[in-house]
Amino acid sequence: MYFNRLILSLLLATASTANEVPEEEISSSSLRRKAYVIPDESSVQEEPTRRVFVKYRKNMRSNFEAELRKRSSSTATRMHYDFRDMDTFVLTVPESDVAILKQNPTVESVHALPFAATASTANGAEETSSSLRRKAYVIPDETSVQEEPTRRVFVKYRKNMRSNFKAELKKRSSTARMHYDFRDMDTFVLTVPESDVAILKQNPTVESVHDDVKRYPMHIPDSVQQQQRNLQQAETVPYGVDLVQAKEAWGVGARGQGVKVCVMDTGVYDHEDLPPITGPAGTPFTDDGVGHGTHCAGTIAAPENGKGVVGVAPEADIYSVKVFSDDGSFAYSSGILAAAQECAAGGADIISMSLGGPLPNLFEILGFRNLLRNGVISVAAAGNFGNGLWSFPASYPGVVSVAAVDENKAKAPFSQFNRQVDVAAPGVDILSTLPMTAPCQICDQIDEFSYGTISGTSMACPHVAGVLALLVSFKPEAEPSEYIRAIEQSAEDLGAPGKDNEFGNGLVQAYAALEYLNGGPIKSAASPTTKTCGDDMLSFNLKLLTDNNASETTWELRSIVDNGETYLVGSDYENGTDIIVRECIPKNCYVFTMYDSEGNGITQGEGSYSVIVDGEKLVDDGGDFDFQDMVSFGDCFEAMYEFLN
C-alpha cells in the first residue's frame, strides 16, 4: 500500500511541476528542446506490429539468428515458427522493422502474413468455390495486412499463484510473449494483444497489471563533436575531472582501485584507452553501435596512462550491461530493472545510468530500493528537457539524481530541475572516448583513434559515478548511505543558498567528500587516517581476471605465524571471469600465493592479477609464472623474530 501511495505521489508531483514553466518563457531555444520532449502517458502508444515470413539467405541462418538476438531485448520481436526446410522464420516485429529487415544482407525476402482469406472480390462479386480455395493461400498486398496492437506490461500474480498463472500463460502462448520473470517480485513481463490487458486484470490469479514504460539515452544528439586524437599524443585531462576535484583525491590514494562500476547503456567498446571491459557472459556487452556507453565509460575510468584522456576514477573497473540496441532508440523499464540486477550479480559497487523517461514504474522503485539495501549505489541522469518534470529512475528514492553544469559552473540550459535533484556535475562539451571502429551512430566519421565531446545529463551522471568510486576505494567498509551523504554534504553550493531544484546540494567535490567520509582533514596518502579497515586491521584487495584455463587457478592467503592459519582461499572459477576480493584482515605477517596446477601461470588468454594492501600495489598485472607466484606483506619482521626465538 505504501508503494502504491508513493507512485501516486510521484505522478502528482510530475503533474504539478509540469506547470512550473510559464508559457511566456517559450523561446527558440525552448522550442529546440521541445524536439526531445517525450509526451505524457496518455499519448504514449506502442508502435504497431506486423506478422511476417522472413526468408534468410542460403547458409546465413546463424547470422540471421544473431540479428534476432540483438533485437529481442529492446523491440517487440517475437518468433512464432521456424520452417527450417524453407530457410524461413515467422515473426511479429514492429512496423518500422519491416523495411529494416528487407535491407538486411542476411535476408532474402519478407512477406506479410494475413489474418484470414477474404471471400469476395474487390468489387463485391461472389467467387466460385475453386477460386475461394485458391485465394485461401494467396498472401494479400502488404498494405492490407494489420496486426492487432500489442502492449508490454508487468503482470504481478497473487501470492502462491505462480503455477496457476503459468497455466494461464500456456493457454495464451500463441498471443503472449514473455520477456522477463522477476520471481522475487512474483511478476512476469509480457507483450500481449491490447484486448488481453483488460482480461488479465480480471483474472483471479492476477494481482495487478502495470505498463512497461520506455527509457531513453540522456544526451543531446546535436551536441556531438568528434575529436580525432592519436593515443600516442600527450594525455588530456577533461575539464570535468578538475572541476570535481578528482586529482586532489588521487593525491591521497583514492583512485577507484578495487571498485567495479556498472555502465548500463548502449554497450562499451573495448577501447585502447579504457580498462578491460567485462560483462555478463553470452551478451554483446562490448558492442556499441551508438557510442553513448563508451563515452560514459571513459568519463568514469579512462586510465592515467599518459595518452588519450583520463577519467575521474582511473583505476576503477568497468562492467558493461547493454540495455539499448544499436539504434539507441529506447529500452523498457523491465530491461533497465533486469540489467540492474545483472550489474549486482556481476559484483558492481555502483551503477551508472545515463538514461531515463517521464513515467515511473512500481517495480523499478522496488528493484532499486532492494539494490541499495544490498550495498549497490545507483546513479542516474536528471533529464535533458530543461523543465521541472521528474525523470525516472533518477527521481526514485535512493537513486542519486544528477543535474548538469558547464565549465563555468552555470546550470546547463537543458538540465531538468526539480526537488529530486541530488547533486550537479559537468555535462556540457565533455571530452571522452568513442568507439574506434564503425558503426558509431553519434559519430560523424570514425577514424582509427576516436574521441569526442557530447553534452547532456548523460555526461554529468558518470562524473558522479566516478566520484563515488573514489570514495569506495578510500573507505570500502562504509555503507552506501554514507557515500551518498558524503557527496551531498560536501558539494559546492551553487545557485540559491542550500539545496535547490537546479543544482540539488551543489557541484560534487571528490576531495571534500573524502574529508567528510574521513571525519576530518586527510594528512597524507600513507597516514593512518586513510586506513580503510581500522588501526588493528589491514585492507587486502585482490583483482583477478581468469584466463582460458580457469580450472587450473587457485590462490590462498596464509599467515606465517598462528600455526600457518589460512585466512582466505579461492578456486573453481570460470574462464574469463573478473574476480574482486576486498577484506579487512588482522595485522600479521602474510604470504599470498597464486597457483596454477599445469605450470603455465594465468597467461592462456587475457588473465592477470593484482594485489593491493592498504593502498599499496604489491603485484600489478601479474600472471606470468609457472606453478606458483608468492608475495609477503604485513608485520613480518617482528613476526619472524618472535617465530625464530
Radius of gyration in whole Å, from Cα? 27 Å
Given as residue ranges, the uncertain stretches (5+ residues, pLDDT < 50) are 1-44, 115-145, 525-531
Share in β-strands:
25-35%
Summarize the main sheet.
Answer: 7 strands, parallel
**Number of strand elements:** 29
Total of helices: 16
Shape from CA axes? globular
In whole angstroms, the N-to-C terminal distance is: 68 Å
Order of strands, widest sheet: 12-13-11-15-17-18-19
Which structural class matches the secondary elements? Answer: alpha+beta
Helix content: 10-25%
Give an overview of the whole structure.
Helix 11 (about 335-345) packs parallel to helix 12 (about 360-375) and helix 13 packs parallel to helix 15. The termini are far apart. This protein has 16 helices and 29 strands. About 45% of the residues are buried. With about 650 residues, it is of the alpha+beta class. Helices cover about 25% and strands about 25% of the residues. The model is unreliable at about 1-45, about 115-145 and about 525-530 (pLDDT under 50).
Short note summarizing the structure:
By secondary structure, the chain is an alpha+beta fold. Helix content is 25%, strand content 26%. It is globular, with a radius of gyration of 27 Å.
